[in-house]
């Protein structure tokens, strides 16, 4: 396994480039998520890395080896887990996993990989006899089989339902770590990116808006666009001065100076016996937590995310206080 380094990468389809001077690094054994909205260039990036699309300028390195556009896909040492698995339907599970490796090594390696992805004993099944989650595990085993230097995962959970997606996410991370794989996963799902990766690249219009650890992306987003993209937010227009900003929820500590947007995460809004009075408009129950929709005296609507037992209901009057500092950004949402 090697680390992957991308330097000032530019690529496109003629006309304006789709990727514009993209820079990031995945250390050996690291798991990077590339997160961005539809059309930002995620698929193009994967295609360039896999060798299916040329580089206009910039560099891609796999350890000490430079991957120029003339290195064909099969000589890159890169494994791919496509969207929805794309298993060969006429081959068994073992046939799929063993497809890219030599006959001599096949038996032991296939069993070892099926065990690694939790599908020991599934070798003789056909793809049509697998659930969506199982098919994705087989696709991951197939990608890991030839011991690639890097594994690329293209929205690998997009076809799965929410519960399975979360379970498989943890398993895929554990499998990649157990295999010592260097991996890059693209997704438009912020929860997925923040939940699975060691580092996240937020890609916007072909430019890296932020490259940082998941927690940093959430708690210290580079700008308002990233902040709004990676999680729910309560925002107000405000003017920051001397580390403070006035908001409908009181005067809050913040950074920045001058006019801009104050941003809080809904879990910072605490319902209790002190704070600003507000009316509960509705409660949206999510199972593990709930969102309480609130209306302040001046009509401002905000939302609070509450863990544990929910003791309020629509029509209640509650007090709202704010936990921690507010983020502050130039511009308006
Ligand atoms: N073959 C192509 N020819 C011309 N333009 C293309 C081609 N493929 C993609 N594009 C354009 O490049 C931009 C980036 O597309 P890309 O598929 O890389 O985005 P994406 O982030 O993967 O989107 P999605 O999440 O919807 O798959 C888009 O504006 C798209 O229209």
TrEMBL record:
Identify the EC number(s): 7.6.2.9
GO cellular component, as recorded: ATP-binding cassette (ABC) transporter complex
Q: What is this protein called?
A: ABC-type quaternary amine transporter
List the GO molecular function terms: ABC-type ferric iron transporter activity; ABC-type quaternary ammonium compound transporting activity; ATP binding; ATP hydrolysis activity
Q: What is the lineage of its organism?
A: Bacteria, Bacillati, Actinomycetota, Actinomycetes, Pseudonocardiales
Q: Which domain of life is it from?
A: Bacteria
All copies of the ABC transporter domain together span: 4-230
Q: Which Pfam families match?
A: ABC_tran (PF00005), TOBE_2 (PF08402)
Q: Does the keyword tRNA-binding apply?
A: no
């Amino acid at each position: 396994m090697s680390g992957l380094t991308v330097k000032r990468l530019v690529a496109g389809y003629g006309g304006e480039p789709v990727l514009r001077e993209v820079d990031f690094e995945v250390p050996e054994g690291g798991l990077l998520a590339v997160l961005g909205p539809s059309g930002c260039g995620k698929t193009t990036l994967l295609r360039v890395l896999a060798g299916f699309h040329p580089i206009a300028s910039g560099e891609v390195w796999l350890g000490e080896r430079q991957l120029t556009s003339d290195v064909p896909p099969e000589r890159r040492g890169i494994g791919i887990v496509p969207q929805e698995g794309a298993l060969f339907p006429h081959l068994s599970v073992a046939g799929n996993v063993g497809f890219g490796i030599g006959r001599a090594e096949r038996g032991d390696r296939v069993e070892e990989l099926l065990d690694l992805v939790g599908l020991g004993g599934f070798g003789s099944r056909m793809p049509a006899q697998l659930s969506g989650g199982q098919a994705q595990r087989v696709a991951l085993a197939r990608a890991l089989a030839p011991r690639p230097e890097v594994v690329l995962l293209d929205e690998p959970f997009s076809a799965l339902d929410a519960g399975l997606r979360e379970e498989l996410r943890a398993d895929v991370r554990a499998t990649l770590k157990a295999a010592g794989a260097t991996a890059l996963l693209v997704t438009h799902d912020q929860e997925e990116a923040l939940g699975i990766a060691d580092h996240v690249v937020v890609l916007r219009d072909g430019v890296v808006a932020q490259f940082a650890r998941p927690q940093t992306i959430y708690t210290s987003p580079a700008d308002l666009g990233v902040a709004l993209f990676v999680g729910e937010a309560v925002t107000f227009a405000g003017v920051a001065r001397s580390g403070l900003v006035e908001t409908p929820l009181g005067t809050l500590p913040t950074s920045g100076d001058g006019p801009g947007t104050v941003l809080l995460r809904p879990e910072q809004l605490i319902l209790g016996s002190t704070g600003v009075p507000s009316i509960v408009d509705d409660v949206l129950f999510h199972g593990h937590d709930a969102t309480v929709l609130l209306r302040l005296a001046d009509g401002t609507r905000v939302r609070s995310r509450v863990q544990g037992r929910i003791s309020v209901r629509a029509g209640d009057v509650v007090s709202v206080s704010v936990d921690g500092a507010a983020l502050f950004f130039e511009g308006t949402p």
